[in-house]
Amino acid sequence: MERAKLNQVVTSERFIMFSKALIEDDYYKKMKTESKLAYSLLRNRFNLSISNEWIDSKGDVYLYYPNEKLAEDLNVGKDKVIRIKRELHEFGLLEEERQGFNKPNRIYVGNLEVIKVTEKSLDISDTKVVSKCDFRRSQNANTGSRKTRLQEVANYDTNNTELSKTETNSLDEDEINNIKCSNDSQQPLVFIGKTIQNNPALRVVVQSLIPDLLLNEPEQAQTVVTALDRGYQFLTSELEKNNSVLALQKQLQGDDSIKLFLTKIGGQQLDYMRGHLVDISQYGNYFANGLENRLKIAITTSQSASGF
Prior knowledge:
Elements: H1 6-12, H2 21-24, H3 33-44, H4 46-51, H5 67-74, H6 78-90, E1 94-97, E2 106-109, E3 123-124, E4 127-128, H7 173-177, H8 188-198, H9 202-209, H10 211-216, H11 218-240, H12 244-253, H13 257-276, H14 283-298
Antiparallel strand pairs: 1-2, 3-4
Helix pairs in contact: 3-6, 5-6, 8-11, 9-13, 11-13, 11-14, 12-13, 13-14
């Protein structure tokens, strides 16, 4: 067996995100393994949806994943795919909308409703990062089901030609107010919670860009959130100065324009990092520097407006 090296894990190999909730949450434990894998594959296609602007009028992200392709990726038959989709629907994790004759169905993927994340699920290499944190869901849901709506995310592309060389648990108000970690104000998750309290618009940006980083690498997530907060303030200031790119986005996107623009540029930086980051300990700093450079380029480049 050839053992994986650090640089392979961080950069060259491609992985899909698999939420621990599918294994640890009592509700989702009942799902079949194939359904859990299918859910992960569906979630992994969000970047494709965003780059293709597959976002409906309500801000919900949808995707296309033909049964034939899903059957091929799962190495199962078409009948099995239908059963898998039925189970995902029963667990409130998948909806399909017909688009008419000879048109593929739109697929909407639901958010996992994680009731509690314990110390065990936050364990990184047997080192306890946080003593115990309670995350409670507050997605918009029908009272009679576990159905949730997807967070509004920005549309971003992966064009890096103008970049300088110096370059997946959701948060809501209850979660921020009920993070029961240490009273030490320097704990990363406490810091993140306070930052989002002070700037609520960051919540959807953080949800869209770094859902797994919050649990797996909270210290790196703290640096990323700080950079996003600075970026938001920078864009707001530039909009007040009547920057032409941001003014156009304001006309197109309304009050959400800054949030969507920041998510777009942050997504570009994360996509770039997947192929270039070598030292995981520098994740946060690498993101912060790259985001700052990208934002400065984006607001002076008319082409950036066409990405929405």
